Amino acid sequence: MNSAIADAAAFTPAERELRRSISWTGAFWVASGVPPLVLFSIGGIAGTTGTPAFAIWAASMMMGFIQSFVYAELAGLFPNKSGGSSVYGAAAWFRYAKPVSPLLVWCNWIAWTPVLSLGCTIAAAYILNAVDPDPNSALRTWSLASGTLGSVSFSLNAAFFIGVALMLAAFAIQYRGISGTARVQQVIGLLVIIPLLVIGVAPLLKNGVNWENFSPFVPLAAAYEPAPGAWNTAGWTLVLGGMFIAAWSTYAFETSICYTSEFKNPKTDTFKAIFYSGLLCMAVFLLVPFTFQSELGLTGMLEPSIADGSGVAAALARMVGGGPIIASGLVMLMILALLLCIMTAMAGASRTLYQGSLDGWLPKYLGRANRHGAPIAAMWTGLIVNLFLLAIACADATSFFFILAVSNCGYIIFNFLNLNSGWIHRIDNAHLERPYKAPTAIIAIGVLFAFVNAMFLGAGAKVWNPWALWAGLIAAGAIIPVFLFRHYVQDRGQFPAQMLRDLQIDGAVARRRAGALPYLTLAAGVATVILANFIFQL
């Protein structure tokens, strides 16, 4: 314990602490980059599932909203932590299986950080289309270097270098801390969210609902093929694949509680931030996919440019009946929306690494903040990793969705562990103050949803890439040796004093009141993934 205290004292407050400088509205605007995530996979989900696509978005959004009440309770337990619900959930698991805690934090990070590279890829495609519409031009076909990495490709093409510039711009904005980021996000958020809501409503008011585009209500016979299928094993596999990838967007507003240690009044701000962010996401994720399907129909949704995201702006322009000026404005809207997503991801993901370091789960160097209160070491780490991912995502749509699927494997693992941390905290940490306490029924539903998510993982990842599940599990497990080195070599088996103090633990880590239940939960989760992977086949 003494070594941990000494390590913490080695940094001055200005170097290592975030600052309480925002209210829940600031977090709401930082999280306003979540609703535009619908634009990342709206074409992919429609292309793989067909007419049930709108229902998949609605069901996934309702699951995410219910789960958020569990996360709201977790956030209230730790008013001095940043980094989001994975950090709060990690504090529940460390008594039972220490490596599970860094796994939980790491999986949340690998879920969020690729938003930078994926968002920059789509934004760069829009910019290139505007500058040079000819797909066969020298600019569009040029590449400094290209090749393959296993089942994916990479390319240092024009889109890559435009993506790098966008990524650096987001980095520069966030360098000055959360309050400045929130102000920029508010402006961009208003420019993006209001038009998104208008797009979701205006075509329905103008043209009504084209109900024929919602039938027959069966999945496709095969992904990206217009022939309707049936509710058989292959059909259900495609639907579960849609639920798997939709979760990456619809659950993501939990990022609004990444800033607990930066809230002026965390007791009230945490619940308000996640609740109102959830309501905003519900409006967008229910309206936009429904209107999208009503206007485009199955044939329109199966267009290649819709699947890879590059043609979504043109489709939106047709939906609202706009001419070239409206179309150009919607291209700008898409670029701003993607920049909003990028900034949200960078803000949340960097704080997850930062707090994970302070709590003893991740490498020490990540626990450094600059003089503006920004987690600078974590930001640089995310930037470097995403430069590598950007080169892959810019190569082709297959590589893009491979990154998305692997990323979401981490996100589903995080959600499984985190939803179960709700009842573990109830048992082991009943003594902690809870500014917001979720109904016990919600905690129970959260456990059920944890296993439903595990089924999505086992059955659905293969829809996007046959190797996605295994690559995702390898990426998740990569943190275990890093944690073992940090904990047993650098910290000599002791946790930082701050982590134990937040749990109001003095001395030895004791009181495993949940008994064998956490271990049985882990075993049941693994079994669910394996069984789902075996049963559901294309």
From TrEMBL:
One of its GO terms (molecular function) is transmembrane transporter activity. Gene3D superfamilies: Amino acid/polyamine transporter I (1.20.1740.10). It is a multi-pass membrane protein. InterPro entries: AA/rel_permease1 (IPR002293), APC_superfamily (IPR050367). The chain crosses the membrane at residues 26-47, 53-72, 103-128, 148-175, 187-205, 234-253, 273-292, 325-354, 374-393, 399-419, 440-461, 467-485, 516-536. It is found in: Cell membrane. Keywords: Cell membrane, Membrane, Transmembrane, Transmembrane helix. It comes from Hansschlegelia beijingensis. One of its GO terms (cellular component) is plasma membrane. Signal peptide: none annotated. It comes from the Bacteria. This is Amino acid transporter. The keyword Calcium does not apply. Pfam families: AA_permease_2.
